[in-house]
Every structure is written in structure tokens, then in C-alpha cells.
Amino acid sequence: MLIDHAAAARQNKQKHTLVALVENKPGVLNRVASLFRRRNYNIDSLAVGTTDDPAVSRMTIVVDASKTSAALVESNLYKLVNVIDVQDLTNVPAVIREMALIKVRTNDAQQRGEIKQIADMYKSDVVDLSKDSIILEVTGDETKIDAMLNVLSEYGIMEVVRTGRIAMGRGATRMAQKHEATEVSVVPFDNAVVGQNGHGRHT
Amino acid sequence: MKLTGAQILWESLIQQGVEVVFGYPGGAILPTYDALYDYRDRVHHVLVRHEENAALAADGYARASGKVGVCMATSGPGATNLVTGLANAMMDSSPVVAITGQVASHLVGSDAFQETDVTGVTLPVTKHNYLVMSVNEIAQVVAEAFYIARSGRPGPVLIDICKDAQQKSTEYTPVTSVRLRGYRAIKPMRRQDMPALLRAAAELIDNAKRPIILAGQGIKHGKAHEELCEFVNKTGIPVATTLLGIGVISEDHPLNLRMMGMHGEAYVNQAIANADLLIALGMRFDDRVTGNLSQYAKNARVIHVDIDAAEINKNVPADVGIVGSVKDVLRDLIPLVAKRTHDNWMAQINEWRMDTQMHDVMNQPLPDNLLLAPQVIRAIWEATGGNCTITTDVGQHQMWETQYFQHTRRNQLLTSGGLGTMGFAVPAAIGARFARPNEEIWAIAGDGGFQMSIPELATIRQEGLNIKMAIINNNYLGMVRQWQELMHDRRYSATQMWTPDFQKLAEAYGILGLRATTLDETREIIAKARAHDGPVVCEFVVENETNVFPMVMPGKALNEMVRRQPAALGTGFETVK
Questions:
Q1: Least confident span in A184-188, B308-312, B382-386
Q2: What is the DSSP letter of B372?
């Protein structure tokens, strides 16, 4: 039952992938970002987008757990009023992907052919072609994208944009179902309960 | 029925049980103050002299009543002046709702006159905040704000309301329930975990030889005073309290060792340092409580119970971490633990306690012509029989209050803990005055902090508030001076303080002013102040270089204290390990 702190620390020396469902309201991204800054949390990436529910956005956050406790990030995110649910997908079966657009400098036909070959090997698409450049679109985990960038670097990379990690648990699980909001009565305010807080002598 | 946004605001506040609001009007909140004119029989508005004190008074009211305190200010400078008070409420988990006016919604973002991004500014110092741009949101937002402020781990919530939202009208239906998708007062634990955690805790408790309970403010918020007492009586485990935990168990309880931490009595810190089990209840292992974390209670297992999941494993790793209300957890835990006593452990603690008393300045021969701050605190305690509410500022006098006032009433000390806000005592006493109308209230401040609160003498006078104010005047920012003495070779940089004639100052406000320079005079003016039916300012001119001992120096272990030499007055001190 007791936590083995040494083992916990060893286990934590990795990147944690947290997924947060948040209310799609103005300022929510600011609240999340402000939390990370204020608590001095080390975040590798943060990806935000809409979901099937227009009132809900989904964030994927990668935490460097060697510097920051992922459990504390999770608990603090959970405390934000606009955060509906948080899950740590690190140790559960999950699909984890990142997308990148890579612009490579090229102006001769032979080079273009080589780059196209490389792109095919990485199952990536050519999405733009100009006289002096080519843009490739690639999807995969970070190591795949890193590897492709490494290969392409000798041709001269002009620009790179990466989405940061996005993730989803495998199987028929669904986040936030347990978080259907419960209705809480707020009035009449129960002064009798407050009375128990009285300041009389200890009994 | 159609009402304006401002009217809806007051209706909603009244529905939440609000009886008093501390505030200061201005342009962007003007419609709300105009509507107040018609609600003035149902809500009492206290006009403070600076918005910071509105927030601090609301905080004091919240601490004293257990209800939500409300403060109000206009946009821009009015709202930014609230920030210190909100930060204070945030650090000490005080349920406060702040209402600010904002420029009209079509002007938001245009750098309009007195426009400030108040929700942006207050984001890190509130539990949550709202920018209300439409009259239709007001009733709902007020209900949500009060619920968030007082549920779970309480905290301040700010509602910034655009001027046009206050002015426009809409159909008003009282909001009786809220539905917050993303808010749970307590992060639910997996149901199957709880019995196992409780059993693990009980096992640690039953097997401990040198256990100690660390009791914090969570017990007060969770109204778990009786459960704590029952738990202590059954397990025979001694209790140390945090600063804000003072008053969760009576200080005349034989197992209450009293306050721990940087200026906790030596034997309390020695007990913690030598414990084999810490049972932390509703406290958050603040650095002022732990000293150097790597040296903290090295041989102790830790049970940590807190309503805020983010506190578990934040500073001190917990062997058993339980997220929940202390009251519920203790109720479940009490039947699982054995009835015991800890005679050997208490004998050891009592030995340390005897040693501590040898070092106590009050047990040393004191010259007649010298008044010491601890004597003043003791004199207030003796005169009142401990039957009063105390508010304090921050610094030496605050620590002496914890050491020399015996707190036997629940929640009788209201003090700024986490933020350490100077200028808290007087506004907090104003708030407490409304929460506890029949209680004797003493606001104890140093000469530094009191000078931050002087404008509120006008509020006290205007409202006719019976508050006894005690100024412990050593003509220094005493605690900073003490640090300079101990850590900066007595280079007293910017800590010497000229003070006004406080008697005359009080008189200028139509308040009785008294002054004492000896112990006899001290007792005399305290009696006079207590007999006076109205506010009183008492100035106590004390020896100006007395230090608060013991002291855990920053970065040092909790039991590595700087202590006064036994039987040596003045600046003699020693490091004892």
C-alpha cells in the first residue's frame, strides 16, 4: 500500500502525456498557461483543438516528469473550474501522434526526386511544390518526425512547424462521461451549518 | 419581473445570505451603488478608506463567520487595489467574493478610462474569476461564484461586471442551483482505494512509537473540531498546530503542544523532528512549517489528509495520502484505530518542554523599567481571560501573540498566514466586528503595520465599531530588523521607523487614545480600554530590540533553532541542535 518513493521517482523520469477536456470559453487557454507559468511547470508541448462537442475543447499536454510531477500537474489542472476532466495517458494503451509540415529547399529535378522518395518512406505527402522549395506533410510519433528531419537536413530545411503531441486512449473508453455535471443547490444558504463554525469555547 | 443588472446583483447577493459588503464606489460600479440605495435596509455597506482594506475586511468577516465575505470596488485602480486582499484570501483559503465594475462591454480592450484587465490581473490570486458582459449572466454567475468560493478548499472569486450589464434590464428569476461541468469541490478518489488507505493509515497509527498530529486550518473549514478532539483522545497522540490551525483544538488540552514551525516553541519542533509518524490534517507543509525539507522529520512516515488533491505530495511525500474532508476522514478513521496512550513519548516531549521554558524570556528576571511585547500580549490575555477574538498583523507581535496568548476558544485568532500581509489586523477586525457582534475584539499590530491601516480609523469611527486596537511600538519593522540583526550583521537598512503620536492621532479621529510604557501602565490602559464602550487605540511602547525566539533560520532544519540563552536577556542567543 505504501508508496515506494524511489520507485516512483524512477518511473517518473519520462515524458507524460496528459489530456484535458476544457470548456470552450474565452480565457481558458490563458488559465491553463498561467497555471504552468505560476507553478513553474516544465511543459514540452501543448496542443489545443475542438471536439465533437462545440462547448468542449481538448488539450494534449506533454510534461517533462523528470522536472515536474505529472500527478501534481494533473491535480492542479483538475482544480481549474473550466477543466472538465484530465487523464494521464502515459501508462495506458493510447494512440499518440504529432504532425509536421517541413519546407525543404530544392531547385533541381534530381533532388526533388530524392526528396519524394524519402517522403514516401516516411509515408508523408507533398503538399506544396514551388520552383525552389517543397513542403512535406508527415504524421507520426516524435521519433519518426525527428528521424525524417534528420534525413532532410542535408537538403536544407527552410521551415518546420510541428503540432505537438496529440493523444487518445485506445478502445471504447471515453473521457468526461463520468463528469456529467451534477446540479448543486446553492440556496437557501444554510446559516445553521455555518453556526457550527462558532467561536465559542472548545467543548 | 424585469430588473436592472445592478438590482439583480443585489437580489442575488441577498439570496446568498449577504448582510454586509465592504466597498468603495466609483464610475464603473456606479449603477450598482445607485441600486444599493434601495437595498440599504437589507444590505449594510461599509465604506472603507482604501479598497485593499475592503478585501481584507471581507476576508476577516469570512474567517470570523464561516460565511462568504463580500467586497466591492470600481474598475481600474479600485479593482487593482483589491489584489493584495485577494491574494491574502487565496493563500489562506478564505471564501471571499469580490465584485468589480468594468467599463462598458463595447469599450473592453480599448484602453478606456479606468480600464484594467482585472480578470487577467487577478487570475493567479483567485480560485476563479468571471468577466460578465451581459445582464443575462449576472444571477447565474453570482450563484456559481458563491458556490465555488465556499465549497471544497475555499478561496476568493472575483466577478468583473461591465457597466452596461449593470444598467440593462432583464427578466429576473432567482437561481437556486448551479451546474458546473468542470468543477468538483473535492477531487473524487477511486472508491475502491479509500478502505485500503484508511486501513494503511490505521496500521501506521497503531504501530507508531513517536507519532504527532499536525493540525491545520482544514479542520476549521471542515468543522472537524470535535472529530479531531475525539481522535486525539482515543489515540493519545500529541498535536502541533500550524499558525492558521491555532484554535482548532483548545490550547489547554493536555495533548496540544501548540504552534510548530519557524517560531514554534522549541519542544514542538523537536517533537516533529524526532517523530516516527506525522499525521497531517488539513495543512499544506508550508516552508515556514517545515524548515529545510531535506532535513524535515527524516525518520517519520507521513499520513496526509487534505481536501485539495494538489497538496498531497507537493512538498512532503505522503506514505498514505487521502483526499477528502478532514471531518469525513476522521469519522471513518476513529473506529479503526486502537485506544492508546504514549507515556514514554510524552515524557520525552515534556523534558524538551521544561528545557524550552528555561529559555523563555518571561521566566527570566526582567527590569522594572522595561516593557516587553510578550508582557503586553500576556496582559491582554489575562485581562480578557482569553475570551476575545484577536486579529493580528504580520511580524514579531504576531509570533508573540501565538506564543503568549493561550487560545482556548475556537477560531479566535484571525491572522494573515500564507501571504503575510501587513495591515491585516485592523481591516480584519472591522470584518470580524460584523461577524461576531457580541465578541470583544482586539486588533494587535506593530507600529509598521498599523501605519498601513490608519485610514481605516475613519471607517471605524463612521461605523461606530467597538474595536480595541493595540499597537506594539518598537519603532522598528521588528521582524525585518531581527533578520538584519541575525543575518546581516545588524545593518539596519530601512527598518527604523518614526511613528506619530498615536494618542493624538486617535483623538483626531474621535477615538480614545491611550499609551503605556511600563507593565503597570499596560494593565491600567487595557482595563480602561475594555471599560470604554467604543473603539480605542492603545500604544504600547516596548523594548525595541527584543527578538522572537526560537527561530529556525531560512534553509535550516526545523530542530536547528536559534534560541535565547537560558537566563540571559537582551541579544544573547545560541544555536541549539
A1: A184-188
A2: -
Go through the domains of chain A in sequence order and give each one's CATH number.
Answer: 12-92 (3.30.70.260), 95-166 (3.30.70.1150)
Q: Under an 8 A CB cutoff, do A78 and B187 touch? A: yes
CATH number, span B2-171: 3.40.50.970
- Yes or no: is domain B193-352 CATH 3.40.50.1220? yes
As a whole number of angstroms, the distance between CA B360 and CA B549 comes to 8
The 3-class secondary structure across chain A, one letter per residue, is CCCCHHHHHHHHCCEEEEEEEEECCCCHHHHHHHHHHHCCCCEEEEEEEECCCCCEEEEEEEEECCCCCHHHHHHHHHHCCCEEEEEECCCCCEEEEEEEEEEEECCCHHHHHHHHHHHHHCCCEEEEECCCEEEEEEEECHHHHHHHHHHHHHHCEEEEEECCCEEEECCCCCCCHHHCCCEEECCCCCHHHHHCCCCCECC
Which of chain B's residues have a Cβ under 8 Å away from the Cβ of A188? Answer: 15, 17
- Residue (of B58, B511, B62) closest to B244 by Cα position: B62
Q: How far is CA B410 from CA B57, B138, B175, B282, B405, in A?
A: 20, 36, 34, 16, 14
Length of chain A measured in residues: 203
**Under an 8 A CB cutoff, do B177 and A82 touch?**
no
**Closest residue on chain B to A86 (Cα):** B182
Show the CA angle centred on residue B113, arms to residues B110 and B116, nearest 5°: 70
Inter-chain CB pairs, A–B, below 8 Å: 133
Separation of alpha carbons B101 and A38, rounded Å: 26
The dihedral built from the CA positions of residue B263, B265, B267 and B268, taken in this order, carries a sign that is negative
Is domain B371-542 classified as CATH 3.40.190.10?
no
State how far the Cα of A162 lies from the Cα of B222, in Å rounded to an integer.
Answer: 47
Pairwise CA distance, residues B325 & A44, whole Å: 34
All three cell numbers of B206: 497503531
pLDDT for A7 beyond 80 = no
Asked whether residue B202 carries a pLDDT value surpassing 80, the answer given is yes
Taking the Cβ of residue A40 and every Cβ of chain B, the question of whether any pair is shorter than 8 Å is answered with: no
Which ipTM value was assigned to this complex? 0.91
**% of chain B exceeding 90 in pLDDT:** 93
Sheet containing B536-541: which strands, arranged edge to edge? B413-414, B389-392, B441-446, B468-473, B536-541, B512-516
- Give CA–CA dist B421/B90, Å, rounded: 12
Task: Give yes or no: B339 in active site.
Answer: no
Q: Name the residue in chain B with its Cα closest to that of A76.
A: B310
The CA-based dihedral angle spanning residues B442, B447, B453, B454, taken in that order and rounded to the nearest 10 degrees: 100
Per-residue model confidence as pLDDT tens digits over A141-181: 999 999 999 999 999 999 999 999 999 999 988 876 445 56
- The cell numbers describing B540, all together, are 504600547
Residues of B in contact with A184 (CB under 8 A): 147, 151, 177-180
B371-542 matches B193-352 in CATH topology: yes
Residues A77-123 pLDDT 10s:
999 999 999 999 998 999 999 999 999 999 889 999 999 999 999 99
Active site residue B113: yes
Query: DSSP string spanning B17-54?
Result: T--EEEE---GGGHHHHHHHHHHTTTSEEEE-SSHHHH
